[in-house]
Amino acid sequence: MGKTVFIKDTTIGGKDKTRDIYGILLGILRERGLENEVQVVRVVDIGVYGQGVAMRVLPENFLYSHVEETDIAGIVEQSLLAGKPLAAKLVAEDSKQLRIVLRNCGVIDPEKIEEYIARDGYQALAKVLGDAPEKVIQEMKASGLRGRGGAGFPTGLKWEFTRKSPGDQKYIICNGDEGDPGAYMDRSVLEGDPHSVIEGMIIGGYAIGASKGYFYIRAEYPLAIERIEKAIKQCHESGLLGKNILGSSFNFDVEIRLGAGAFVCGEETALIASIEGKRGYPSPRPPFPSVKGLWGKPTCINNVETLANIPVILFKGGAWFAGIGTASSKGTKVFAVTGKVKNSGLVEVPMGTTIEDIVYGIGGGAMPGKSVKAIQTGGPSGGVIPKEYFRTKVDYESLQQMGSIMGSGGMIVMDEDDCMADIAKFYLGFCVDESCGKCAPCRIGGTQMLRLLKKVTEGEGTPKDLDQLEQISHAMQKASLCGLGQTAANPVLSTLHYYRAEYDAHVNNKKCPACKCAKLVRFLILSEKCVKCGMCFKACPVNAISGNRESGYLIDQTKCIRCGQCFEVCKPRAINRS
Amino acid sequence: MVKAVINGLKVEVLEGTTILDAAKKVQTKIPTLCKHPDAYLHASAACGICIVRVKGTKKMLRACCTPLEEGMDIVTHDPEIVSIRRTVLELILSNHPNECLTCGRSNNCELQSAVADFGIREEYFEKIVKDIPKDDSTGNIVLEPRKCINCGRCVDVCQNVQDVWALTFLHRGINTRMAPAGDISLAESPCVRCGQCSAHCPTGAIVEKDDTRLAWKALRDPEQYCVVQIAPAVRVALGEAFGFPIGTNVTKKMYAALRRMGFKGVFDTNFAADVTIMEEASEFIERFVHKKNVLPLITTCCPSWVDFMEKFHGDMIPHFSSAKSPHEMMGVLIKTYYAEKNKLDPAKIKVISIMPCTAKKFEISRSREMSASGFQDVDVVLTTRELARMIKQSCIDFPSLPDEDCDHILGEYSGAGTIFGATGGVMEAALRTAYSFVTGEKLPKVEFGNVRGLKGVKETSVEIEGKQVRIAVAHGLANVEYVLNLVRIAQKAGMPPPFHFIEVMACPGGCVGGGGQPYGVTNELRIARAKGLYSDDEAQTIRCSHENPYVLQLYKEFLDKPLSEKAEKLLHTHYQKMPVYRR
Amino acid sequence: MEKLTKEGLEKLRQQGAATEKNYIKVGFSSCGIAAGAQEVYDVLCEEARKHNADVEIKKCGCVGICSAEPLVEVRVKNMPRVFYGKVDKDTAIKIMEKHVCGKMLVNDRIYDLKVN
Questions:
Q1: Positions in chain B short of pLDDT 70
Q2: Mutation to test the A interface, candidates B35, B52, B146, B174, most A Cβ within 10 Å
Q3: pTM reported for the whole predicted model
Q4: Which domains does chain C have, with CATH numbers?
Q5: What ipTM does this complex have?
Q6: Cβ separation of A437 and B172 shorter than 8 Å?
Q7: Total domain count, chain B
Q8: Which one of B123, B376, B415, C10 is least enclosed by Cβ atoms within 10 Å?
Q9: Distances from the Cα of A414 to the Cαs of A36, A299, A340, A373, B39, in angstroms?
Q10: Set of chain A residues whose Cβ sits within 8 Å of the Cβ of B88
């Protein structure tokens, strides 16, 4: 293989020098007659950020940063000709991602069982079918895997409880009712690697003594459902589901049930009610599903990501898995990094990776010209974490200590344009919409809190409103029946905790520091800076800007909807936002 | 047994007992708005007020649905718990209209009492009450969803105790409300008007339709001749509204009160119950002895049961006794026999029935046969609760009233008539008479203990002339299916019927636990009220319907004999399959 | 398909692991499809046919860089395995003409991210 060089200027803001360096390098190569030996390519993303011009030399895989024009000759000399690294510019690049759950996503064709099998698929199943179920549970306990749906309950223990519950019939349910705003790892796994979830489920069924499993997948995931259906069909055809699996005496089958779009149906007891054909109301615990679950039988409910972990754990051993992660949280976690971040998408990192590594190292940091302010984790049950705490190593406990939760792994990045009261309002609004309406603290408390937050963000709040917010939050946490209600106030409490000043600015000064809350922000054209280009005029969606290229432009405040489009398009920054 | 501590007091309860119930053992009343003390209802854990905690922990538990565990040290109130309870109450109040003074449950509302107990004196949170119209489509049960606090009792009782599934919850979040499934009107729903929802509702969200105005209008019209009849179960429940101990029999004070209110004839449905037995027992003998029709025979005194059967068990119609319910028999007898005897114009007679039941309001116009006299046989039905209100409006000091007797001839009743109000009562009364009809002998012992009590389905058999009569008594409509399925299975297999005679009452405990009775029904209450009726039975010299001399006189003077042509025309009815949904 | 036994499973595994061919994988999860993966896939197939290219065009799940969908992974013998992001029709044609046939990487489209 010949040499290849990737080039990308990773400087944030300012002029992009990628093309200049590319030209210089090509020139030097031509001079030396190497243009046919070395391929030089401009790439869009090189995996490091804010480190000047970066250059990767393949096949040696030397990654250089802060490359200046003067370094290029040296790189050619050292790396391209001599095959040695240029130590001064070398970046230590340790792969931050570790793919266990996503091991096959984007690698195999999800509709082909052969490709899954070729990557050690169903090997774990073949292995455990020879073991006693108790041994499988023991292995799971040794792995330290905790439920990836949010609460983080040890999976091995859950299996053990269900196995030990007396009952002639038991069930295992795959919870695919993913609903946190911004989280979609379950969908991606179901779509990209359906067999890993099915294998996890068969193993779970074997361990707890269930002969029947249910996939509970939200109807809004049609592709995931289609792929799971196909995968189940393939399993039936090849004898991986049905009677005498892989020639053993174990019988197991699965069925799919579709969720009709209620967030609360991701809650275990509500999910069971939904499968039974009832209104998706949570019910009090005890009795826990492991004792009295679906149709009154012992039932184990595992999240998609949890199940996708299981084949690997049992293939490689619990001890191997326990070697990854932190003391209390083992293995990896998939995060859906979204929001105001350069590379939004799914990342899988070992537990204990810092937020910084995820947001900046993998996510690439904020969008050009912006800076990250905080992240929000755990969906509507979670909280915000300000950037001052980004050195924190992520695991179940550390997030909880900061007033947030792991949740299903949503990680929404916010920048300076995001108002924290507005964010809290958004998440609370979600919970208020999704409240099942059963218990009073959540049903009425949430609605009252949303009303108060609306007042605050519209500049009509009073200090008493903030007191009421805290009071209701407290009551909801303590007196709500299910997890949805108990945690619905978290976004409000955590923003109040970290960003009290922003709330106070809304209430006392009637100002939104992030200039986000429409009722509190005004856009004005500064005539001394205006170059009369007319971009704002064109951008305005409601024709609130009048004028022409001679006279200049003016914003009609009565028509303006404070969308900020003019502000974003104004190159000379002649629009004042306050 | 589980040993634990509540508020520092040792308590020992059966395993599985909730903290709420265990606390009662140490004289601790944990407040709740959703858990009804009635054992038939399940804890829904909806209101969030009964929170308690294990000493030293942060988490709070719902006392209504958390079983007490060995060694728990429960604290039922500390500053934090009380403050959260108060906040939750204030939240519920913010979602409830301020219409207490004109509400059907004023002075009798669980939310009102809780708010008063917590000394809430201001609207701390802004009101958010949605304007949802009330549903009075049935004409007997009124839904006012605005007043609903979503406790779930009505839905629980409708679905799980009565198996009717008329009520459910619609929508979600703050828009969640109790309503007929599919958001149709209650009249279009499978509702059988048993009124158990209204009897268990903590607020005024479900109430009986108030017909007292109709009654007052009739009473105040000089042209009208107003007569009244009182159902068996009313006499042992009305006293509760006036401070009498539960189960006190206030029959004679009730007669006095009604007379003072202006009724020109005060009769007793118990008399008609005796007539019902004459007809029904004869019908049973026709089927059992003379094999003239299919067995088992099923009683039809309960209009909710009739409605339920027509909607859900139409295949059982041939088994139904064609005898009308006692108060309908009374209505038609008043407008025919009594009118003739006293030379009254039946067009000017108004018959008002005092019933423990909301479904009776619906029964009086359920078919043309309810106007067998040529006029609507019963004009107005009032529940026990409505009668209590009317007595209060009439400036009557009820507890101090003297005892009075009811009017002749449709008043004097046998012990068999009065026990109609308790589950198993109709069966027992019918057996007493059927035995004598078949054997021609007097029963040595008239009590049938096996059909009494609150067991959901009571199965037993009685020997009559060497033949075993197999009987079943079911109460609470959810218990019906089990009995009917046994019948169906035997039919399909060509086997003899598992039962010859079946009694069904829609409400748990029978009419003593009816949907129109005073609020707060529990099993203790049902038992105490039933005991009042059984004592009334024992106090009567005549214990069997066929021995009631006035019943015999009625047949002699007017009806000829049971199942005569005239009796068939006036006292019997027909049934037909009905659609479950009327839309 | 025959009912598998443990031995059959092992055989299938070894068969699958052996292949070492040129391939192009197109991300076909919801994110990819929404961004236009189907068109990219069709164009690639059409172009491969036109050029009679020695490459297998496959579908796969989401590799995780959802913001860069449609994402196309290209592996051609003796060249680095790369991901092209935000691939449109023109890029798809270039990938086939330049990369697969001409053994030249395409500028300004590669996302050099360590994902697997």
A1: none
A2: B174
A3: 0.91
A4: 20-101 (3.40.30.10)
A5: 0.93
A6: yes
A7: 3
A8: B123
A9: 46, 39, 5, 6, 52
A10: 440-441, 445, 475, 479
